[in-house]
Amino acid sequence: MAEDAQIHAGAEPQGPPGLRRDARRNRLGVLRAAREVFRDRGLDATTRSVARHAGVSVATVHRRFPGREVLVADLAERAADDLMACFRDLERTVPADLALERALRVVAAETVATRACAPDHRERFADRARELEERVDAALAGLLLRAREGGLIRSAVTARDLGLARVAVAAAVAAEPDTERAGWAAQRTVTHFVRSFRGTD
């Protein structure tokens, strides 16, 4: 499982080879704190803020991640890995159309959770952000293909429609300053699109 998933679960990640147990534990704490701080305050949040939230020194943060850019890149990479793991699990465990729907809902929830930091990430790390988005798009397209081949989604629905759904979700989230209402808006938008995907040709 991706280390980002372990952040959620509270498990102790392995991290880079050679790290001692306490060093791995510190690294997990920094990752968890950085995830929460950046999502709450955006990428302008200081390393000192991350260290304070993690309960460690700034020097400890720098030992684990030499530069804020490294920390941000690691978090973004692991968030994408976490989504991929979720999609694979859905593909194995539920019908294809439901797997696609739940994957879209997970992405919608992630859009809400990262709205304070995602725009900065796309601006400051444009190439890498684009690569990660393409990974997510490709995985969603694979779920769509499986559902379409099984006759559970209209044959006319394409990956472009998934892209439109994601754009609509982002717009719905941006239109709601309140986080809870933004979450509702994101999920309602997914519901509308999924209903149209399941309609008859």
UniProtKB/TrEMBL annotation:
Residue ranges of domain HTH tetR-type in the record = 24-83
Region annotation Disordered: residue ranges?
1-23
Positions of the DNA-binding region: 46-65
Question: Listed GO molecular functions?
Answer: DNA-binding transcription factor activity; transcription cis-regulatory region binding
Q: Write down the InterPro entries for this protein, in alphabetical order.
A: Homeodomain-like_sf, HTH-type_TetR-like_transc_reg, HTH_TetR
For this UniProt record, give its keywords in alphabetical order, as a comma-separated list. Answer: DNA-binding, Transcription, Transcription regulation
| Source domain of life | Bacteria
Q: Which PANTHER family match?
A: HTH-TYPE TRANSCRIPTIONAL REGULATOR BETI (PTHR30055:SF234), HTH-TYPE TRANSCRIPTIONAL REGULATOR RUTR (PTHR30055)
Q: From the Swiss-Prot or TrEMBL record, give the protein name.
A: AcrR family transcriptional regulator
Q: Which organism is it from?
A: Nocardiopsis aegyptia
